[in-house]
Amino acid sequence: MQTFFRLVLPLALLTSCRLATANSQITVSPLSHLQRIDGFGASDAWYAWEIHNFSSANQTAILDALFSTSTGAGLSLLRHRIPCEIEPSPGVWDWTTDTDTVWLSKQAIARGVSQVWATAWSPPAWMKTNNNVNNGGELAPSHYQDYATFLATYVSHYTTVFGVPIWGVSIANEPDINASYESSIWNSQQFHDFIANNLMPTFQSAKTPARVIMPELSQWSDYAAAATLADPVTSKFVGTIAAHQYAGSLAPFTDAINANKTVWETEVSNLGTDDPSINDGLYWAQVLHNTVTYGRVNAWHYWWLFSDSSDTTGQSLIQGSPSTNTFTIKKRLWTIGNFSRFVRPGSHLVTTTSTNPESGVYTSAYVGPDGTLTVVAINTNTTATTLTVHSGETGKWTCSEYRTSATEDLSYVGSPTVLAGTVQATLTARSVTTLHFQYTGALPPP
């Protein structure tokens, strides 16, 4: 998280980027695979304990809203904070600080989360040049190996003791910002040298299974990964190139893509006054759409899953307080859910074509690993419109329609008839609609 960038990136995109624009008719090419989709998620950093302290009924309601693939948004990625306090002094470990996060991890996995991964905001204070987890500072070169061991130990303990596999580890959160909260400054060469000389041999020796993620800059850029990607050895070791979306111009990370790395957007939110309405929900649906279709990302994350009711910003998907046992779900959770519940990990974005593009309507299409086809349509206009989808397949298809609007929260609204691979749906004003196609024949579609 960072607190002083304005959210200028998506505002520019909403008026300039329309790679997959809809009109009254679109044709989907289900065999024309673009990038794989790893999933959609958010972070529990600092707030797992609040969810854990709700009543049992409200715990279930919050968790189901976030992660359920039948009644909720179906988020499939969960981002942790690696607590710097677990090693308060050299060789001394305290794992009691993360019990709420472990509980939340298991609850999320039980509801279908496929990948739990973690970011370090700062190394422990004793490893840093400023002897403080806050206010920037750097990892002292004399403690590079200590930090590599710290990360490997975190992964090992979570997996073998807590029973929560950590899929990936990000070395630093927003290493381009000297923040007053937990932070640590890294440049491109420091990342490379730490990976080459310490992290890579440590992970390889310990057989640490976690993928390495970096550089997670606050802006949409991967400049701090340049030295790592330029070295064939370190480039091969790193799995995912990630960035936040608080500033910068959206464009594909071609250096990472050419190096066969997945590209993840790992944090963005509204840092200003919260708007829980459909207006905000439509905004974030468009940001997600543009980042996937134009930015070519494999994964997209909002910032917080949950924040306290005292928070007046729009940084979370659900807000509440266990002290009053009340919470509010923001409309943006449901419009994100129009993607995340149905576009499951292992899906692929596929090509769509259209004629006479209709202003204010955006579509994208995805083929799932189970042979399903999902079309997500965003109608930002104040009037309804009709969308006809030609699926490109003429087998035995059924279609289920789900909608988020001012009065609906990812609601099932019917099963339009599919004739010769074609379906027609009404996109109500100011809404996000998901058309989820399933093949019902003896064999999956070709």
Strand order of the largest sheet: 19-18-21-16-15-14-1-17-20
Helix content: 25-40%
CATH fold description of the largest domain: TIM Barrel
Which regions contain 5 or more consecutive residues with pLDDT less than 50?
1-22
Can you count the helices? 11
Structural commentary:
Mean pLDDT is 92; it is low at 1-22. By secondary structure, the protein is an alpha/beta fold. α1 crosses α10 (278-293) and α5 packs across α6 (188-206). The protein has helices at 8-16, 48-52, 56-67, 99-110, 144-162, 188-206, 226-230, 232-237, 254-258, 278-293, 331-340; strands at 25-37, 39-43, 77-82, 115-120, 168-170, 211-217, 240-244, 262-267, 270-273, 299-308, 313-314, 316-321, 326-329, 347-354, 361-367, 373-379, 385-390, 397-404, 411-414, 422-427, 431-439. The protein is globular. β5, α6 and β6 form a beta-alpha-beta unit. The strands form 3 sheets. Strands 19-18-21-16-15-14-1-17-20 form a 9-stranded mixed sheet. The protein has an 8-stranded parallel barrel with strand order 2-3-4-5-6-7-8-10, surrounded by 4 helices. The longest helix is centred in the middle third of the chain and has 19 residues, at 144-162. It folds into 2 domains: 8-18 and 38-346, TIM Barrel (Alpha-Beta Barrel); 349-439, Immunoglobulin-like (Sandwich), CATH 2.60.40.1180.
